Amino acid sequence: MIKLVECPRDAMQGRSEFIDTAIKAAYINQLSQVGFDTIDFGSFVSPKAVPQMRDTEEVLSLLDLFNAKSKLLAIVVNRRGAEDALHFEEIDYLGFPLSVSETFQQRNTNKSINEALDTVEEIQNLCEVKGKTLVTYLSMGFGNPYGDPFSSELVAQFVHHLDELGIKIISFADTVGSATPELISELYTVNSKEFPRIEFGLHLHTHPQLLKPKIDAAVASGCMRFDGAIKGYGGCPFAEDELVGNVATESLIAILEGHGFDLNLNKIEFVEAMKLANVVFH
Fold it and tell me: Which residue windows are transmembrane per the record (predicted)?
């Protein structure tokens, strides 16, 4: 079954103007009625690093989760953030951005890759104690603009290490739009066979006109977990100046339904979410 992850956190985090807390909560409440598997709703990180996310805890307090159809995911980058997030039983998943690129790991979390791997192990242990699931994002998972080493074999080494830590969900993240259909096919085909215990996802930043061949390749290679953001808003503020956006959820839905998948979404609620997105990201 296809799992769709809606990412309002990723859509919002790089915006310079602060989005009102009540508006964020209203938007996430609307998204929770659509039928997405998971909503990446906020992050427990330094407010200096990501000012837009400084109200994540308050947003959480305003969410109406009684009839929500989605699980909640929060991004963390260190033990303290993980401990903060784990105080809330409403949060099902913690997400950690682990980079294949040493340069980007430093830019994104102010850690080396080795330090970040130690943090992943710490957070994984905390999640297991609390009955939560850690989602590890392999950012720069399809190459990087910094000249750092990259190969599909290097990605497989990261996956092997994470498998040894007991990580159950890994999302390959194309932070700067460098994925090709051929590389997507290679990464998913090789790793899904080698590590059958792991659920592999795809978090693309891409130009809209290049999206369909990439999703087609992922589907053909067995990927069943896809991240998107309504209207393609957002991107990573720590990557580079010329950002490519998130995958537009409406485009992702159309492509996946074109493959014959029943995504079990409430289309009426989705239309309302699209309308509300115009208010949030005006």
Answer: none
Find all residues with CB under 8 Å of 125, minimum gap 6, and list them: none
Residue 19's identity, in one-letter code, is: I
Residue 138 · residue 155 · CB < 8 Å:
yes
Task: In whole angstroms, give the CA distance from residue 270 to residue 31.
Answer: 7
- The whole-number pLDDT of residue 244 equals 63
Quick one: pLDDT at residue 234? 78
pLDDT score recorded for residue 237: 46
Residues 204 and 246: their CA atoms lie apart, in Å, by: 6
Confidence band, pLDDT 50/70/90 cuts, at residue 239? very low
Which value, to the nearest 10 degrees, does the dihedral of the CA atoms of residues 229, 234, 237, 239 take? 70
Does residue 185 sit in helix, strand or coil?
helix
Give the phi and the psi of residue 41 in degrees, each rounded to 5: -100, -20
Domains and CATH numbers, the chain: 3-280 (3.20.20.70)
| C-beta neighbour count of 263 within 10 angstroms | 19
CA distance 82 to 95: 9
Report, as an integer, the average pLDDT of 207-231: 95
Evaluate the CA torsion angle 198, 91, 142, 254 in order and state its sign. positive
Phi, psi dihedral angles at 96 (to 5 degrees): -125, 130
Q: Quick one: residue 23, left, alpha or beta (phi over 0 = left, psi -120 to 50 = alpha)? A: alpha
**Best CA proximity match to 137, nearest among 205, 81, 69, 189:** 205
Q: Which residues, 6+ apart, have CB-to-CB distance to 212 below 8 Å?
A: 251, 255
Structure tokens at 186: 């290679």
